């Protein structure tokens, strides 16, 4: 029995009216690019319009929480508020403890950001022990062993915006 | 001497007047379904009416805290406020550190959610190292080695709502 | 030289005018009961009146922080505010990671609860790797290898209430 | 090249006008006493007047954050506000996980206390794996292998009070 | 394929109008000095004026969050508000658990500081297991095995100030 399986969407969602922000770190660019593309493709397949997908970047993953906060503020200040945001970063274990402290603090800061900004924040952070793991989760390892996780984030963004976004009820 | 034992209810509770939300992730669906059913069955056995058990879902466990917050808000906006909520998710250790960071951040976010929403949040998150452990705690491993933990959550929900819910005093 | 030693009270305290709440989980009941009794005995030996020791329970340790919050609110709503509270729970390591996530989140939630409720919260949580360790710290293992830690909690409660409680200055 | 070295004061500080609180746990008293004395000696050597060093105690390290909060409040209520506080505790690893959960929660609670009380909180907590490590850091192991860390805390207190205390600017 | 690679700036930035604070601990001075110089050099190369780079210090890394908070307040009180701040510290694993608790609490406190002060806080904390690792990341080990990470922090500061600083929009 396959217990551990990909969650499927619970219904068909129509993303034509939602506005989605993607903000990504620029370290480990090959993996990041694949993940961002995966997210965009899934967003579009669920009806999100290209002009409603806004892309921004920060230097590294530690900058994601504050960058996401200000990215949301910035869009709102232009009268183009986001319904949901997907911060994307790829952390890979190195020889110091940098990986652990960054992964932990960024994960928690993104979680708690939601109540401050009032929109869903999708967790697009890979916390990998090897480069191979990161490539696999972006769907770009040689054997194509896994699907592109950016696709999951795109689907989650549409669902969360429609169910629980600022205009949901 | 059996030290480690299941806590029993301290008194008989009558759940006929309480309204319970269940919000569950959709990853690891087989286990999730069993846990949700276990919770529902126990709620009903303690008098909670079927129409007062509201079910909602989110894609994965990371979405539980914000989803729970908005699910509660949504029910309140319909003049049908919840007395207690049971977020349910099943996390299983994989090869990256995803399991650890999600488990930790979700556990703490659900804990701190209580003071923000003012109702008890029952901890329905399994943090398992293997699929086998998850199935056992849902009462669906082959040897039926453990009871369905969803039942505990249903009982805890009724007790916490009646003792410490928003209408308790 | 014995470095690691039990802290003694720094002065004699008179608990006759303070009101103490004890709220305990019901899992691992044998150990819990011994700890609760140890705390009560010490409270009484420091002058706390039996009618000023209020006992409440929650299903498990995860319910302690919210239960403690509402227990305090409930007593205040009856014009019988508590000066200090002792949440008591016994967590024992199992095969999943449940122990770690619960222990960590409950410890921090009880710590931060103090500033929200304005009274001292004594840390009555045992985080043990084995049942044997739990029994020893409740003073009920066969060899009576350790003293009942509930006694320390009772003493700490009286001291903290008198020095730093809501009526201390 | 000696990389890991004690930080020196960046300038001479004159502590004659500042008021310093020391609040210490009472477990592991031999080590605590040495650390408290080390801190006091350094404070005096930087000009802090004896009558401006206020000593208070709590039972154990878990009580430090709330005790420190209320100690500060108490001094302020007497029109004798503190400019800086040094909570001191000694935690030594035992057989349960008590050490880990206490160390972590106390460290973070003392850190976040600063923004609530508006004065610097110096970190006087030793988190040792053995008694030997604790004695060494208090300057009282047989071989006098290390200096008394209480001295560092005294120096840090004076610097932080003068640079960043409530009366600094 | 080189996955794990240094993130490059996404565009050319002009730092001539921004004001940058650097606040560093003084432990492990050789490494700290190299990192601070690396940051300053990169700031200047991106146009930041020397008179707009303000340097401050604290005793150790635990003092960084509160010191950073008050450093920002102090500059604002002089009508010379900072646009971004770079706290710099070097933590090296020792025999007790001091490294772990300090690293974790400082990382999280710096992260959450951003929403309190409203300016970006760049993460200039090295959390190394050996002195060798620290020297390598400051570009001062014998083999010059890595670049000076202070340079990354300088670049991140300019980008974050211009994109997401208090005067960005």
CATH architecture of chain A: 3-Layer(aba) Sandwich
Strand order across the largest sheet of chain A? 2-1-3-4
Question: Which CATH C-level class of chain A is it?
Answer: Alpha Beta
- Low-confidence regions of chain A: none
Quaternary structure classification: homopentamer
Structural features:
5 helices, homopentamer, Rossmann fold, 15% strand, 4-stranded parallel β-sheet, 4 strands, 169 residues
Short description, anyone?
5 copies of one chain form a homopentamer. With 169 residues, chain A is an alpha/beta fold.
Describe this structure in words.
Chains A, B, C, D, E: One of its GO terms (molecular function) is 6,7-dimethyl-8-ribityllumazine synthase activity. Chains A, B, C, D, E: Pathway: Cofactor biosynthesis; riboflavin biosynthesis; riboflavin from 2-hydroxy-3-oxobutyl phosphate and 5-amino-6-(D-ribitylamino)uracil: step 1/2. Five copies of one chain form a homopentamer. Chain A has 169 residues and is of the alpha/beta class. Chain A has a single domain, classed as Rossmann fold (3-Layer(aba) Sandwich), CATH 3.40.50. Helix content of chain A is 44%, strand content 15%. Chain A has five helices and four strands. Chain A has helices spanning 29-45, 64-77, 98-117, 131-137, 149-164; strands at residues 20-25, 53-58, 84-92, 124-128. In chain A, strands 2-1-3-4 form a four-stranded parallel beta sheet, sandwiched between helices. In chain A, helix 1 (29-45) links the parallel strand 1 (20-25) and strand 2. The longest helix of chain A has 20 residues, at 98-117. Chain A is globular and about 45 Å long. Chain A starts with 19 loop residues before the first strand and ends in a 5-residue tail after the last helix. The model of chain A has no long low-confidence stretch (mean pLDDT 95). Chain A binds chain B through residues 1-10, 93, 103-104, 107-108, 111-112, 114-115, 120-123, 125-129, 133, 137, 152, 155-156, 159-160, 163-164, 168-169, and chain B through 25-31, 56-60, 62-63, 65-67, 69-71, 73-74, 77, 92, 95-98, 101-102, 104-106, 108-109, 116, 131, 134-135.
